[in-house]
User: Fold these one by one.
Assistant:
Number 1:
Amino acid sequence: MTVSVFIDGAAGTTGLEIGERLAGRSDIALIRIDEARRKDAAARAEALNDADFVILCLPDDAAREAVALIRNDRTRVVDASTAHRVASGWTYGFAELDPDQRERIAGARFVSNPGCYPTGFLALVRPLVRDGLLPADALVSVNATSGYSGGGKAMIAEFEGGAANTAFRPYALSLAHKHVPEMTVHAGLTHGPIFQPAVANTYRGMVVEVPLHLAQLVAGTTPDAIRAALAAAYPAGGLVRLSQDGAPTVSIEDDAGTDRMTLHLFSNPDTAQVRLIATLDNLGKGAGGAAVQNLNIMAGLDPLAGLVL
Ligand SMILES: NC(=O)C1=CN([C@@H]2O[C@H](COP(=O)(O)OP(=O)(O)OC[C@H]3O[C@@H](n4cnc5c(N)ncnc54)[C@H](OP(=O)(O)O)[C@@H]3O)[C@@H](O)[C@H]2O)C=CC1
Ligand SMILES: CC(=O)N[C@@H](CCC(=O)OP(=O)(O)O)C(=O)O
């Protein structure tokens, strides 16, 4: 079986990553438009309506416009932007979020690819809320650092052109980052987490951390219970894997250049505190890898085709 796929925004950071993963696959026929017409609405509309699947790698407004340009009831969509991640009629494209999420994605016409930071946050927190270990009204925070490719072409130019002039820059200091709604909704929390992102002077990779006092969890919850919940949520052999933490070091490079995500749990019985940490690639499981995974699931293809494990 061959499916036709159009990447709208193929010349951008995420679009190029996805194009690389799909190139050379015999089960995918890529639809391309001339470089000179890649922002031309008529050319895009033709490709959007010809394709079995489209992957939107566009700014939010352009992603909404692309969806409006689809005039048939056949073309299926994976949107990598933030535009539809808590929108009704859209399925959240995080296959490992819940036991039946993969099946929901398989049957969906409109799938929103998760944000890169929410991918790490939700992997750590969603199983704890679902299993009743973390109360839904818990007040949590999430600290995270991303490589600068997370900011797309503009941020890459800033760092590689020498204008950034920093090794590490906290941002979103207004406490209103665009990822907080999807973190809240899909974790099943009633309060948004305090989100403290930063960008580091490295191209790709992320560290996403949720620190918790055991007192924030339901009484009697132990680090072993948290580990058991995470182990049950992420069976071996998938893209999301639970580290055994024999060698307790974590770095932003750990999963860079791959489509996997690694979860860590560190704890100290004396302080009754835990640090839950996810490492991933903002362009891998945080964007392009997840989009290809969703496409594979929706089209009924080999679920790991084109992915870097
Ligand atoms: N970078 C990352 O790590 C992640 C990005 N995303 C999301 O993916 C989307 C793309 O981001 P990213 O690749 O980083 O951004 P880039 O800025 O690198 O790429 C966006 C691309 O879209 C093109 N574009 C803009 N407007 C239009 C339009 N109207 N029609 C056609 N093409 C258009 C741009 O053209 P031009 O080249 O001329 O500027 C550019 O090539 C965003 O919504 C982003 O939030 C999601 C997860 C992670
Ligand atoms: C370092 C950096 O600037 N990161 C981006 C998010 C990266 C991203 O890809 O956001 P989406 O997944 O929602 O598209 C930011 O914080 O806005």
Number 2:
Amino acid sequence: MIALFVDKIRFFDTTLRDGEQTPGVSLKPSQKVEIATMLAELGVSTIEAGSAAASEGEREALRLIAGAGLSAEIATFVRALPLDIDYAADCGADCVHLVVPVSDLHIGAKLRKSREQVCEMAWNAVEYAKERGLVVELSGEDASRADPDYLAGLFRGGVERGADRLCFCDTVGILTPEQVASVIPGLLFAPLSIHCHDDLGMAMTNTLAALKAGASAAHVTVNGLGERAGNTPIEELVMALEVLYGVQTGIRTDGLYHVATAVSKMTGVPLPLNKAIVGEMAFTHESGIHAHGVLRNASTYEPIRPEQVGRTRRILLGKHSGTASVQAALHELGYVCDEGQIAEIVARVKAIGDEGRRVTDADLMAVADSVLDLVREPVITLKQVTVVSGSNVIPTASVTLTVNGGEVTCAATGNGPVDAAIEALRRAVAGAGDIRLEDYQVDAITGGTDALVDVTVCLSKDGRMLTSRGARTDIIMGSVEAMVSGMNRLLEERG
Ligand SMILES: CC(=O)SCCNC(=O)CCNC(=O)[C@H](O)C(C)(C)COP(=O)(O)OP(=O)(O)OC[C@H]1O[C@@H](n2cnc3c(N)ncnc32)[C@H](O)[C@@H]1OP(=O)(O)O
Ligand SMILES: CC(=O)C(=O)O
């Protein structure tokens, strides 16, 4: 374990300010309130809810979040201007993140002012924010490229005028941990935060280095969202601190995945598959040797338990699978096979993988049925599907199925034709079981508008999950095929 400077680290979450500065991301006030509530429940100390000066919508969000009675301190970004500070106070913020450019580049090229003028602006703003009853976190923007003596003087003067906390911003992500270790100890005139950007992939490393060198708070965002390459991801920092440094962060780690997926959905920024902690593959295993090890003892290939961050382990089948993982999947699906049958099933699973395809549960069941010579009458058969969609109609689908021998016709509307068709299918089988769509993924196997579309769905019934696929040139029929195949498997008698 490496000792950190303070026992209790504060997490200043800026998902709703720097995170929302991710180009193309824009949240409605109601979405901001939803995310702020989740962040407070997670246990962060401060939520930077936005930039009050930016727009009426931002002020509306700030008013709502500040009035929501959350346990976290509510902050807003402000420039060193009375107007911005007035917005913050009038909206009910607890705290201002008062940002002042401190490098000669930013002072000269951007503000076109002198070092002395910027000090004056910063100090006047601190005094004014204190008069308005706000907690002040005085931040040095582009501090990594500032003259350290000038920065120290500006910070010291700010604290003398009432600043409660300070923040060192590595605005363009150019620090090294060695520079952090040398500069941070000279700036501890008040509790100091570190705000890192990930332009060179160093945000996490530099944040940890600052916490070792004397900083007591880390600026973080969910999923590492933020300007350009983003900021330090809360999920990675919290888990690194807990697991590698033995720090009790006070963050409810089992809520991290829920917040990550909710933020990804609301911002429209997908989670990279292989992202640490929250990526889809972070607790998924396919290789035979890994799956075999994990099935005997999960620690062999998992540094932390998935449940610690609100996740579950998955073992996927494909061309890298071995006997142990195929056997475990067959057992889970209720099949009893001898050694020869398993060897044949493993060979056929690998053959599907060699064709470049994912192996779903329904694929495995089809292979197993064929190897075991099991003949199953399908519970449902599709007789027809009709979909209407266009510029002036609500997407509507009707389906006719035979379900356990009886004919059922159902219709539904949806957000689009696929959604309508899936809902119509769900309604048509409702008498046989409540089947829910948990996940829907689509890949175009070839380029162009005539591409073969590969749809994978994850369905659940009574807590049992199952994946299945459909592949057609028509996305609606590919989706229907995946649904019908999966529903059939979920409705079959097991054993
Ligand atoms: C590193 C960071 O993440 S900094 C935070 C970035 N966040 C944002 O920009 C929030 C969203 N921004 C906005 O909505 C708008 O830019 C506003 C409302 C803040 C300002 O809009 P405008 O008044 O039209 O100004 P514009 O965006 O063109 O330029 C920024 C102005 O702020 C000034 N400024 C920039 N930083 C500061 C500061 N810390 N303190 C005081 N003034 C500042 C600039 O000098 C410029 O003013 P000038 O044209 O008089 O020189
Ligand atoms: C303030 C801020 O977001 C930065 O300097 O990066």
Number 3:
Amino acid sequence: MVIIRHLHIHLYYETAVLKYLISQSKRLLIGASIASVVHGACSVFLLAQISSALTAEAPDRMEMALIFGGTAVAVMLSYMVANILFERLGQRAHAELRSFIAKRVIASDYRHLELIGAARVQSALSEHCTHVAEFFVSFPIILTNAVIVAGCLIYMALLSWQVFLLAVIVIGFGSLGYHLAHLRAIRHLDTAAQEQDRLFAYFRSLTDGAKELRLNRDKRVAFYDNVLGKSIEIVRHERTFGMSLFIGSASWGNFLIYAFIGMVLFVLVGDVPDRALIMTGFALVFVYMVGPLEALLLNIPRANLAQVSADRIDEITRTMAASEEQTDGLSPPSLQSIKLQGVLHRYYHEQSDELFTMGPIDLEFCPGQITFLVGGNGSGKTTLAKLLVGLYPPEEGQIIFNGTVVDETNRDHYRQLFSTIFSDFHLFDRLLETGGVDLDNEGNRLLAKLHLQNKVKVKDGAFTTLELSQGQRKRLALVVAYLENRPFFMFDEWAADQDPVFKEVFYREVLPELRAMGKAVLVISHDDRYFHLADRLIRMESGCLTLNSQAAMKDKDSLASATPSVACSNAV
Ligand SMILES: Nc1ncnc2c1ncn2[C@@H]1O[C@H](COP(=O)(O)OP(=O)(O)OP(=O)(O)O)[C@@H](O)[C@H]1O
């Protein structure tokens, strides 16, 4: 009873995500909905036939039996078609939603993605997606049963307008109760959804922090009791409370149904001549209607859960701004010069209300030049590298590439200039480089060059294993960088995990070779033994460049006595 109004709410109160999904599968949804409506209508028609068969005369029975049989087959077929189509719709919605989020994540500005965080993306891709897909499974149940209930009400109106009027009053009461419960319940489901995003971060700590948790019993207990267990409990509690409110209102609806039936049977139908016949007719409708009504009352909460998840996905994907134009299909850029002019980036730390400012910085890079970027921990080296390679757009100042200002229209193209190995690099198990080289041959040649030929091979465009030490995995990343063969190489503390022998290889063979190939190279390093090998050395302190020495470093003592050539306007 409550249903028609709430069905209306759910059909029209769509989030952008549901709208998108519905628009993607419009035809399938229309087909499945028609099959559901046909199923509901045939079911009511079947009921009408059962009712009239009870009082039918013998000569009509044969014809009625045929119609009954035909309707029963139609009920079966429409049920099958509706459910298969909705199952397909559910699976399709799930897949569409996953690709929708994945594409949004890929296109999102890097800084936005950093701010959203991996846990929220994971939560959206897994649990929220599943809830939304389930909407398409509960939708046919809601639709079919709504049609059956509506049909029953019409049938009732034909039997008696007084009964129909009473039904409308009961629907009003039911809706009010449901609405009040709905407002409260949604708040709890929302809280559960927010907590679930945090829970996914704790799930990651379970695997990422596996070593620490095993080595420290107190930490393990505290992590489970105060962090993970607490979060699991909050999600359980909030969701149970929210869903219980819905179930409470469903029970209220249920009570109203029986109150309604009682009123009709004992109050409205008085001592009329055909009492037994009229009672039989009503009893049949009631019995037939109770099942669909209950199914409706139970499935609407599931649709609400989907709604909350869809809102959550919506919120996450909406903040994934994609301000840059994708520049697929353009040929890779070549490098003449890169100029950083007054570039600046700020990090705001909400908890401590502190701001870290990097810049303003002026720098120039050209091909065939090796630049070392040095400085203490947290001085801003990686941040500068992220700005240089176009992962962060400068908040102030600009980057000029081959004489052209880098902006939203060409930043994606500009980024194709760089092969990078950040300290938190990621290795894809497949080699995704598409430079036209024979990946297997070239990959294996490079593996031999980096002394890894006995550990790992490239086979069918993939590394045979990634189960290697951190230093070896970094060498694999170097193989990938070589295969990319871009004009600019950026290494963020690459050599930190290498043994002394390979450090020598890196600084004395790999880097000079890259220079000879005409590559521009930026090396973030703490290896002061090798600083003198740089063509230029720049030092960062508290987000400012304090030294930009163009001269070749002959020894590190000359470095220590060098005067800063770049004024720091940001000194703290
Ligand atoms: N993702 C981030 N969000 C917010 N603040 C950040 C983030 N990354 C870095 N910071 C802030 O910026 C400062 C500089 O960090 P950055 O990683 O650039 O330093 P770094 O010189 O590369 O340090 P290290 O030598 O330890 O790698 C840090 O002190 C930190 O406060």
Number 4:
Amino acid sequence: MDNTSKLLRIENLQIYKGDTLLLSIEASVAAGEILTVMGPSGSGKSTLLSWLSGMLDPAFRASGKLLVGAQDITQTPSHLRRTALLFQDPLLFNHLSVSGNIEFGMQQGKSSSKKQRVLDALACVGLSGMEARAPKTLSGGQQARVALLRVLLNEPSVILLDEPFSKLDSQLRQATRELVFAQIRQRGLAAILVTHDQSDADAAGGRVINLSTTGADKQC
Ligand SMILES: Nc1ncnc2c1ncn2[C@@H]1O[C@H](COP(=O)(O)OP(=O)(O)OP(=O)(O)O)[C@@H](O)[C@H]1O
């Protein structure tokens, strides 16, 4: 793989908490690739995602660079980065309908074409006819799919997945995972998946970074 095909590049990243080095990473992710990050509790997985999304807590200090394509976005504020986060909790707004949730944050455009895109996307993930429903009336798996569409229709270049399947039972987990990974590959996004689950890493099929236990919570 040459450099031009690497959509996301993390160069010489070091994150410190006080004087302690929490993590040190050099990595690249191609369009459509899913890089998995694993490691014990406290090893810095969520901290890494915070840095990637531009929301590192001031308790930490980071050095290194983050590039998307040729653009250095290390200092770019979080709301101007085309990075999207998908969490284990779908975090849907209950005062908005399913389509209102998906349209939230979509790029400017004609309202009628936005609506059609939402309807097409809902049909794609098996949620036809659910556009007017309140999120709380959907099952956990259906909510997960709405959360995915909300992120995807915002057209990110990079998607950060923080244990997004961990609240789903095993059958639903597998189906949702296949859908999410297929969308990532079809749309050519660079993805970073944080998980504790080896089957997630196997399904992602890409490289795996194991954060060391250096900064991890010590066991008694
Ligand atoms: N806002 C913060 N201020 C100070 N320390 C923090 C903060 N957030 C996390 N930490 C500490 O930084 C270390 C890394 O935490 P982080 O949440 O990144 O670990 P993790 O690998 O995601 O853990 P888990 O698998 O349990 O979610 C831990 O020791 C944690 O206690």
